[in-house]
Amino acid sequence: MALRINDEIEIPDSMLEERFIRSPGAGGQNVNKVATAVQLRFDARASVVASVISNSVFQRLKNLAASRMNKNAVVVITASSFRTQERNRKDALDRLVKLIQKALIVPKPRRATRPSKTQKLKRLEQKKRESVIKKTRGRVSFDGD
Q: CB count, 10 Å around CB of 37?
């Protein structure tokens, strides 16, 4: 069974690696015995080579994943919010799907704009008004004594 991202993209299970590790934090005596946290690894570079995701999606994924992607282009997601392996596993898979879906969105190209002459004048007038207000502020002197 493959991990479905959208109608066009499915990641085969062979590209996903799961490790169950001990979960940090509270949990009583059970926390030292059971490995409930999940560490999900997805080799993004291998998925580009296998034509699962495009190079442009890979580049956006690289920016979005940031510290979750190591130097070998492997996305590592650790899920330890829940007390069972199944729920942590589902949480990690859901987070990976959301991350890749976010990388699929092509950002709108930014068009450089300039402020109008009127906007520049308004800004300068506002600065002058603020300057006058600030100049009136100062030390309070008590000359009455």
A: 22
The answer to whether 73 touches 42, Cβ cutoff 8 Å, is no
Domain span holding position 91:
3-104
Has residue 24 been placed in a domain? yes
Q: What is the CATH number of the domain that holds 95?
A: 3.30.160.20
0.85 exceeded by pTM: no
Copy the structure tokens of residue 36: 């409930």
pLDDT tens by residue, 43-99: 888 888 888 888 888 888 888 888 888 888 889 999 888 888 899 999 999 999 999
**By CB neighbour count within 10 A (0-12 exposed, 13-18 middle, 19+ buried), where does 36 fall?**
buried
Q: Is residue 140 part of a domain?
A: no
